[in-house]
Amino acid sequence: MAAWYFAYGSNMATATFRGRRGIEFLRALPARVGGWRLVLDKPPLVTGGGASANIVADASAAVLGVLYEISEADLAHLDLTEGVLIGNYDRIAIPVSLLASPGDSIEAFTLVSERRDATLLPSHRYMAHLIAGAEEHGLPPEYVAFLRGVPAVPESEAEKRFRSVVDAALRKPSGDER
């Protein structure tokens, strides 16, 4: 059985979603969620890193991203690797509209967090993943320009050192059933 997942952060990029997390998707469609706004102020699980993407309720806003069709097993793996089980994010259901057919709505899961720190900025490396994913999946040029305008900082040495450990933990074992 398949599930729909709406990605608005680094998971928009196939290099992250398929490459880093090891999740094979059935479909990837450019999409929009009304009533939510993208923020880049979510603290990392480990101190010393930059901010990650999050969405907050805002009736006057919309966030763009990628709607993935994935297996239930991959949805469970996503929960594990995004820290849903330890409170890093919460999985919620939201209505998502496809950019190609805005009148239609699909019920999908996405991730949100109450953890926020307005003093943090995302790293240039992290923002490059968001921009790559937005371009790869054909999000509008204005949205890509918005992402390019987000203030960012160089990746910290702690983030660089910790990345290989995190990457190894995120990947599904090669023989894993989907």
Explain what this protein looks like in three dimensions.
- With 178 residues, the chain is of the alpha+beta class.
- The protein has one domain: Gamma-glutamyl cyclotransferase-like (Hypothetical upf0131 protein ytfp).
- The protein has helices spanning 14-20, 72-81, 124-136, 141-148, 157-170; strands spanning 2-7, 27-42, 52-71, 90-98, 101-112.
- The longest helix has 14 residues, at 157-170.
- The model has no long low-confidence stretch (mean pLDDT 90).
Elements, N to C (H/E) = EHEEHEEHHH
The name of the CATH topology is Hypothetical upf0131 protein ytfp
For the sheet with most strands, the description reads:
5 strands, antiparallel
> What structural class do you assign from the helix and strand content?
alpha+beta
Proportion of β residues?
35-45%
CATH class: Alpha Beta
- Helix amount, in percent? 25-40%
Side by side, the strands of the main sheet go 1-3-2-4-5
The tally of strands reads 5
Radius of gyration, in Å, reads: 15 Å
Number of domains: 1
Calculate the terminal CA-CA distance, rounded to whole Å.
Answer: 10 Å
Low-confidence stretches: none
* Overall morphology: globular
Instruction: Provide the CATH architecture.
Output: Roll
Mean pLDDT: 90
**What name goes with the CATH superfamily?**
Gamma-glutamyl cyclotransferase-like
Helix count, DSSP H or I runs of 4 or more residues? 5
